[in-house]
Amino acid sequence: NAGVTQTPKFRVLKTGQSMTLLCAQDMNHEYMYWYRQDPGMGLRLIHYSVGEGTTAKGEVPDGYNVSRLKKQNFLLGLESAAPSQTSVYFCASNLKPDFLSLNEQFFGPGTRLTVL
Amino acid sequence: TQLLEQSPQFLSIQEGENLTVYCNSSSVFSSLQWYRQEPGEGPVLLVTVVTGGEVKKLKRLTFQFGDARKDSSLHITAAQPGDTGLYLCAGQVEKLTFGTGTRLTIIP
Predict the structure, then answer these.
(1) In angstroms, what separates the C-alpha of A95 from chain B's closest C-alpha?
(2) How far apart are CA A31 and CA A34, in angstroms?
């Protein structure tokens, strides 16, 4: 049981290049999330998905796209990378949250992206 | 957007001392979580508090949810080097909103 895995762990891009970050979970979770973490700003939600085939915008969606073609995978795409997208990206997943659930999110180890 | 401010942003103390970190908001949350994150890893859940005024203990860590469910505190007794890390609070309304984080360093 690997939990949440992310690929790649590190990446350096030049401005204008594109790339896709892959997140995979083996816990049969319905909900998946992409966050970015910047110093002094905590975790900010980029996009999320409440099930296979669905996606929704979070707090900071501009410049990113996502897809959830399979329940276990959630992809984050950068079409034209900018230096402002230099950050550490975390994927997370959880069961469908409800009022009574603990709603624990399980996080991957992160992808450190630098855009030059 | 609900904003969660954590204080202090950085804290460095000697092993054996006590400390408290705070998580404050003007919004009411249905529940509040505390996570700890170590370098190179993702956050890991420590505790969830749901009821206003609720207090939960996890060994030397004590978590309290404010009566109005707008704020929370984390108190660590007799801090140890293993407590070093980034502590994040996260408030739940429809989605989870994370705080700005407190980076704690315990000096042996």
Answers:
(1) 13
(2) 11
